[in-house]
C-alpha cells in the first residue's frame, strides 16, 4: 500500500478549477509567432528552395495576406527551431521583409521528423527526380530504423509495419509504385553531374537507373564521353554499359564505341498518364481516357479529310 500511495499525484489548485475546454487546449498544439532568424533548415533537406517565379508569387501573397498556413518546426537544444515543413514559406517571408512567422512547435525525434518532412513535400506539383530520389531514401532509412525498434516506439509515425517491407509502407501513401520508388532510390548512386542531367531532362529516367550501377570512376569517365559526343545513353546503350561494368570490361574505349552508335529511331509513341490526366475528369479510368483520345483523333482525321477534298 505504501508503494502505491507514492504514485498518487495530487492535482494543483489551478488544475482543479480548469474548465474542460481549458484542459483540451492544454493538450493541443498552438500556433505561435516565431522570429524568422530563430528558424534553421532541416539537415540534408532534399527539396530545393529556389527563388523562381512561384517563389515570387508566394512573396507577393505573403505581403498582401501574410502566411496563411503555419510552418511546422521542432525545438532544438540551442534555442532555435528546426523547420520540418515550410522551407519555402520561411524563405518567402524573408524576401517579403517579415521578421516573424506563424509556427506550430512539435516535439519529434529525428525519424518522425524525416517522415513528416518528406510526406509534406511530396505533395508539391513539381518535384525533380533528384529530390524524389533522396526524399524516398531518407524515408526508407527512417522506416528501417523504426522497424528495428520496439513497437511502442512506432507511435509517432502511426505504423508498426505488420510484417511489411519499408518500401511497401512508403508505396501505400506515395504517388509511385514500390518498384518505381526503388528505381528513384537507385538514382542516389549517380554522380552529381549525371543526376543533374536527369533533372534537366538530358538523360532519360530509366537509362539513368541503369547507369547508376556503374562505379563512381566509370560514371566520371562516362560523363566525359557524353560531353565529347554531345549525347545521352538510350535505354539499350545504358543496359550494355551496365553489363560491361558488371563483367569488369568497361573502360573509356568501350563507352565511346557504345555511345558513338546511332540510336534506333523510336517507332512507338508513349503518352504518360501524368501528362494527359489533367485534361480528363478525375473519375475517368485509363480505358475511358484512351477511348476519348481515339474518338477525338477520329474526328480530327475526318475533318482533315474533308478539308483536303475541298
Automatic annotation (TrEMBL):
<protein>
    <submittedName>
        <fullName>Nucleoid occlusion protein</fullName>
    </submittedName>
</protein>
<dbReference type="GO" id="GO:0005694">
    <property type="term" value="C:chromosome"/>
</dbReference>
<dbReference type="InterPro" id="IPR050336">
    <property type="entry name" value="Chromosome_partition/occlusion"/>
</dbReference>
<feature type="domain" description="ParB-like N-terminal">
    <location>
        <begin position="32"/>
        <end position="122"/>
    </location>
</feature>
<dbReference type="InterPro" id="IPR004437">
    <property type="entry name" value="ParB/RepB/Spo0J"/>
</dbReference>
<dbReference type="GO" id="GO:0007059">
    <property type="term" value="P:chromosome segregation"/>
</dbReference>
<dbReference type="Pfam" id="PF02195">
    <property type="entry name" value="ParB_N"/>
</dbReference>
<dbReference type="InterPro" id="IPR003115">
    <property type="entry name" value="ParB_N"/>
</dbReference>
<dbReference type="InterPro" id="IPR036086">
    <property type="entry name" value="ParB/Sulfiredoxin_sf"/>
</dbReference>
<dbReference type="GO" id="GO:0003677">
    <property type="term" value="F:DNA binding"/>
</dbReference>
Amino acid at each position: 500500500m505504501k508503494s502505491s500511495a507514492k504514485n498518487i499525484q495530487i492535482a494543483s489548485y489551478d488544475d482543479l478549477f480548469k474548465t474542460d475546454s481549458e484542459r483540451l487546449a492544454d493538450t493541443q498544439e498552438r500556433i505561435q509567432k516565431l522570429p524568422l532568424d530563430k528558424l534553421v533548415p532541416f539537415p540534408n533537406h532534399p527539396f530545393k528552395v529556389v527563388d523562381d517565379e512561384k517563389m515570387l508569387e508566394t512573396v507577393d501573397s505573403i505581403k498582401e495576406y501574410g502566411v496563411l498556413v503555419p510552418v511546422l518546426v521542432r525545438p532544438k537544444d540551442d534555442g532555435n527551431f528546426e523547420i520540418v515543413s515550410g522551407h519555402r514559406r520561411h524563405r518567402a517571408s524573408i524576401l517579403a521583409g517579415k521578421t516573424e512567422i506563424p509556427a506550430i512547435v512539435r516535439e519529434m525525434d529525428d525519424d518522425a521528423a524525416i517522415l513528416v518532412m518528406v510526406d509534406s513535400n511530396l505533395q508539391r506539383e513539381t518535384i525533380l527526380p533528384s529530390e524524389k530520389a533522396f526524399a524516398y531514401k531518407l524515408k526508407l532509412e527512417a522506416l528501417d530504423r523504426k522497424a528495428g525498434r520496439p513497437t511502442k516506439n512506432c507511435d509517432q509515425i502511426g505504423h508498426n509495419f505488420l510484417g511489411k517491407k519499408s518500401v511497401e509502407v512508403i508505396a501505400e501513401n506515395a504517388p509511385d509504385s514500390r518498384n518505381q520508388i526503388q528505381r528513384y532510390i537507385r538514382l542516389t548512386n549517380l554522380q552529381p553531374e549525371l543526376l543533374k542531367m536527369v533533372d534537366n531532362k538530358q538523360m532519360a529516367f530509366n537509362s539513368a537507373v541503369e547507369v547508376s550501377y556503374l562505379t563512381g570512376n566509370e560514371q566520371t569517365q562516362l560523363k566525359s564521353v557524353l560531353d565529347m559526343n554531345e549525347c545521352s545513353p538510350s535505354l539499350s546503350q545504358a543496359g550494355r554499359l551496365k553489363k560491361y561494368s558488371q563483367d569488369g570490361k568497361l573502360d573509356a574505349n568501350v563507352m565511346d564505341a557504345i555511345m558513338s552508335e546511332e540510336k534506333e529511331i523510336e517507332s512507338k509513341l508513349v503518352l504518360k498518364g501524368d501528362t494527359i490526366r489533367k485534361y480528363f475528369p478525375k473519375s475517368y479510368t485509363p480505358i475511358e481516357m484512351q477511348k476519348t483520345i481515339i474518338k477525338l483523333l477520329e474526328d480530327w482525321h475526318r475533318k482533315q479529310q474533308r478539308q483536303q477534298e475541298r
